[in-house]
Amino acid sequence: MSWAEATRLVIARELYESLRRKAIWIVAAILVLGSTAAVVLPEILGGDSDSREIGLVGAPSDEFGNTLAQIAAGVDIEIELVDFDGRDAATTAVRDGDVDAAAVLDTDPLGIVMPTDDDAQLEALLRQAIGTTSVVDSLADAGLTPEEVEAAFDTAEPTVVVLDTERGGRRAAAFAISIVLYIMLLLLTSQVASGVAIEKTNSVSEVLLAIVRPHALLFGKVIGVGSIGIFTLACGALPVLVKLAAGGSLPPGIGGTLAGGAAFFAIGVALYLTTGGALGALVGRQEEAAAAVAPLSVMLIAFYIVGQGGADTTLGGILAYVPFAAPMVMPGRIALGASSPFEIAASLTIGVVTVLVVGRVSAAVYRRAIVRTGRRLKLRDALRPLPR
Amino acid sequence: MTDALVVRGVSQRFGDRVVLDDVDLDVPPGRVIGLLGPNGAGKTTLMRIIFGVLDPDAGTIEWKGRQATADDRRSWGYMPQERGLYRDMRVADHLVWIARLHGLDKRVSQERALDLLARLGLEDRARDTIRDLSGGMAQRVQLAAAMVHGPDLIVLDEPFAGLDPGAVEFLSQVVLDHVADGRNVLFSSHQLDLVEDLCETITLIDRGKVVLHGDVRTLKRESPDRYLRVDVEVEPAWLGEAPATIERVDTHGTRIKLGHLADAGAILDLIRVRTPVNDFGVDAPSLSELFLAAAPTRRPNDAADESEVDR
Questions:
Q1: How is residue B129 annotated by DSSP?
Q2: Does B15 touch chain A (CB under 8 A)?
Q3: ipTM of model
Q4: Which chain B residues have a beta carbon less than 8 Å from that of A1?
């Protein structure tokens, strides 16, 4: 039996045993449905979210309505106007949700009725429209012709040039990718560790080590658990990818972030899961598995926080070259344009080399620790050759 | 007949603790070999070394006259002390998977698994998970896992621990059937009295050292603790120069301590020429008594606290 064949059988068992359980399919179904909902619902509800109904009380002319519509169009919001007789009727309509807000134009000072204090954007639009209308009225009262008033506003209108229109979308994509990566790594690492701990405390590893090499057991489990993790991840990503392929309105620039995220995800899975397996082999009892991988979890959490908050800082730049941190900070750095092609290539190379080194060390620790049953071992004891 | 498995000079330390010290062990084909000793004696460690799970600090493991290789070891079957199976796997799936790890193809693996389950009376539990089996049934599946690839040598670590008498009987029969085919069995036990009748040859270890080994019949014959018991009152003069001394005479009869290698039948004849004997017997020491005689400072169970390595 070759090494590769043994590893293949270990992987096959992991996959078969996971996939024959209901739990995995329930999780997969929830992910597909949840992700589909997240992709499809904004499309369905999209029409509503971009238009507002505004109640008007005592508007002297179409002037206010036109001004409001014009300003709102600047931020992609359509305005529908509904006239009300008096402030009380408008307030009731706002409270009942018949309109999104109301402007009361026959009082002095003029009034705005908002249902809650949530929609600051709409409030600002109404304030601006009221302000503009009253300025126009004042200018007209001062004797300017409508053309002169319009000219005055035209010169006051600044031209906005957005240099990087994709940053917001990429930032959101990077945020989503790191959070998914982080949760997956945290879950899968402890899953591998507890799997190894169960095998050790159940003596399964003893039977298996008599048949196959420890490398096959460790790497087979890492690849098996990692594959199941990637499968569930794919269930969640599928609707997004379908939408991408169908040309839906996904955040622009997400492609590069996704590709970078995938590469660093693979490195992260290999590093954390292999180390998790080696640490899991140190335990004396099954319940100690969580404690055994605690240092790894703490490290992951710390790097995740940096990745979320400061991927484009100097610290983020340094961590880009730290293999265990790179999977957490690099997707953010790529998304924010903070990384150079050199940095990406160097980080990936360091990552791959570290995977090989960590693989060897972990296999050695695993091999020594898995047969030392009884109390929990210190990592130092397992790293050091057995004393002669 | 050459011994199939030969262990020579195996030593193993964990830190400062000597677990095995220059241990020799022979497993000839066609005989049931018991590796006996109290908990913590080093039995499990020795079995792990035999299977290459641990590398010993010193010593060799030979198989059929040459150094045992990884391929040799894969051809053997190992049943560790209790459990040793994925509790969430189905019985048949598990056996097939183990067989495939041994290099058998899928079809042969399935045939072997089902055949073994039928032989062990578990055919209707093939699709149950191991978690759902009773302790005795799980032990049988464990045995099946050690035998599914048709090994020449099976090594069983404490196979009888926690079994009811029926299960002990069943397992003993499987072991005897295996050696009856000229194949090899090595098993360990700390319950010396339980395996007394099963073992033909024993190696007794204590604190990592071999304290006694050999053929059970020979060991008993050579023991200084043998007694001839007759239901009559024997006078010392009757025994003459024979290598035997009267230890006790009471209402049940006489208890005569036999000398080294004394012929009990000849001594019985010396008595029979004086008076008819209706009831008699030779009391040879049990394995426990042999062990206590060989390791006099120990009681069989006072090593339970050292069970880190040998659970």
A1: B
A2: yes
A3: 0.74
A4: 74, 101-103
